[in-house]
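Async update (no meeting this week)

Hi team, since we skipped the sync, here's where things stand on the single-chain job. The sequence we agreed to prioritize is pasted below, unchanged from the tracker. I ran it this morning and attached the output directly underneath so nobody has to dig for it. Comments welcome in thread, and please keep replies under the output.
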Amino acid sequence: MQEPSANQIIRIFDTTLRDGEQSPGATLRPEQKIVIARQLAKLGIDVIEPGFAISSPGEFAAVQQISRELQGVEIAGFARAIRGDIDAAVKATMDAPRRRLHLFISSSDIHLDFQLKKSREQVVSIAREMVAYGKQFVDEIEFSPMDSSRAGREFVIEMVEAVIAEGATIINLPDTLGFALPEEYGAMFRDVRAGARGAERVQFSAHCHNDLGLAVANSLAAISAGATQIEVTVNGIGERAGNCSLEELVMAIETRKSAIGAETGIVASEIYETSRMVSRAMNFPIAYNKPIVGRNAFQHESGIHQDGLLKNRNTYEIMDPEAMGIPRSMIVLGKHSGRHAIKHRLAAFGIELNEEQMKDVYDRFKAKADELKIVPDDVLVRLASETTEQQHDPYVLVDLQVLAGTQRARIASVTIRERESQEERTFAGTGTGPLEAVIHCLQQAIPVGAAFEDLELHSLSTGEDARGEASVSIVHRQQRYSGTAVHKDIILASAQAYVAACNQLILSTGGNNGETDIAAKSS
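Output:
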């Protein structure tokens, strides 16, 4: 029997669908909110704040459906300290088995003077009245004195005391502008917990914005000062520079739990899928160097790092990406890579070279790395083919033609050469867009039974000679395979990336995709 943990359990309150959606350009349709909410429940989120019910009929309907459907998660109805907001939040969440009201009103003098145009006494009175009003409908009331990190400490304590007396059960102290330093934010929690009468009867929560890049650090400071709930968003999205990043906070706690003395109930294996889902739904790309889920977070180009990783992963990684659902692709080949990493990557595709061939491939590789910066697998395999004068790729894209217009379907044709027979065959297809037409052609030409999952396009330069990088991922039997290509023609780059992904699938499975023989398919 497993011994119970002595660590403090930190509840994770997710506001991706409310505060996160307030990011400019991140608006979600109601049906998208519901899909993401299901994934958040699968991730193990303790509390979901699904939206601002009073803001629109669509928002109300989304909050209502999420409240009805997600029976195992606590739902927070968000409302200003206004009766109409409270009524809408109560009605939208009434079918949730577990729910709370989350009420807020400003507490800093600058907000009171210029936004609310009310005195401190008036704000305390409103807070009291609205908490008491909300308490008629729900047992759990979370109260947030907005901008508390820039408010007078004595006034925050006064507000907290007042709402606790009226029945508030959770006190959230927001760093609304991301202004606080960790030591200041932690001190605020200690002062309020020590100075507000009734504080021992309530939970404390932290809600941090990332304007100075301190949201995760401030949240950890709040935990050390007694907070037992942290409010986060997936990918750290939110107004301005965003909120405390769910994946960064959770993995900081998980990785350093013995030092922090805390842990969460998050299902780590769902982190990557949740991140990708939110990024796609909101059309918000994830920065390459984003901790945990960024493209470069677990990739290494330096030859010294690559050598260490090949010997023992722990030499240069403090987390296991696969435990978070992140595909294992730790070595990226570029101009800083060494022969050992190149040899290791080629061996993964069944390509073995003698010393002379390896030297020739390495020289070709260095020249290509100066041109492309990162050398994808399909290019590396092609370099090996040029050296050995053998085709190592199962399939090669020989030719591509696309016909596009405003009044007709897009028409494409591709010519593919198959390795075993060296036969070239041409396939045609149509689509509503040129890329769709090309993919339809390639799916006929390379019938590996994989689902086209995702395409990312990035500009690598500017001006008339700009090149685009295409990254395509396909899924086969719950395994993800990726291909990358660079070209001035982004349609051609996308096609080459798709072929590279298919080749990776075939090479990684030893030419057996579990359906029929690859060579037979092209005959």
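Quick observations from my side:
Residues 40 and 274 are 7 Å apart (CA to CA).
The chain has 18 helices and 16 strands.
Reply here if anything looks off.
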